[in-house]
Structure formats: structure tokens, C-alpha cells
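Q: Sequence in, structure out?
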Amino acid sequence: MEFGDFIKRAYKGEKMRKWSILFLLLCSAGVAFANPIIIDPIGGLAYVIVLGSAIGVEVAIITILLFFFDMSPAPVFIALFIGNLTVYFAVFLPLLDAVSNLWVAEGLIVALDGVLIKAISRYELFQLETFTQLKWEYAFLIAAVGNIVSYYVGAVISA
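A: Exactly. Output:
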């Protein structure tokens, strides 16, 4: 079974209980910061390390998952890295100031990442020869997986 088929089956409801339990266990950490939320001028290097690690791991996971959907890894990685940095500084930080709830901000960022994934999947530069259209559900599911991993990488590094 290919990994893309595994994701499709998991999304359709097969073994959904196992995924639900895994999601609850991963979200049980009450206080964790995947993306550095407060810019600390004194700890500038630490901020760059945490931000770079969280975004780097998120982009790598998403790129690997999109490879199973016949997307070209190198251009996808570069586009997602630039896109995630842009989203972080242009959307996430201002959104976090406007919305006091971190979970609401993260949910909106996952939705925006899903739109970014779907948008880049439409361009031939990012597609391999055997590429078939990427569905919206898979784009959002992949964005959620990448964001969850990023969340915990940031938590581990900033702890």
C-alpha cells in the first residue's frame, strides 16, 4: 500500500479511532509553542533557532507527504519555506495580536497553509509527470499534519 493510499483511507474513516486517539494525545500538552509567539530582542539567536527549526521541520514533513502525491520535492520545499515564513510574519504574528486565543490563530494558519498547498499544486513547476489533481481535503489534512509536527518541534526546542 502506498503512503498516499494510507492517507486517503485514514481520511475516509478507516482506522479513524486510532487517529483520533493519537490526535488527542498529541494535543494534550497544554502549554506549547510551535512557532515562537513573543519576539524577544535579548534572545534573538534562540528565536531564530526555534522559528527555523519549527518551520523547517513543518516544510520537510509537508514536502515528503506531497511527494507521495507526485509533487516535485525541491521546488515544493522552497515554495513552502518562503510561503510559511511569509505567513508567519505577515499573518500569524498580527493575527495573534488581534485574537487572544492561540488555537484560533493556529486553526486559521492551518487553513491558510492548506490553501497555499492547493495553490502550488496547480502549477506545473511543482508537479511530477504522473501528478493527478490534489483534492482540497488532502491539502488541508497535510497542512494540519505539518502544523502539528511544527507545534511540537517548537515545544521541544523552547522547553
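The two ends are 38 Å apart (CA to CA).
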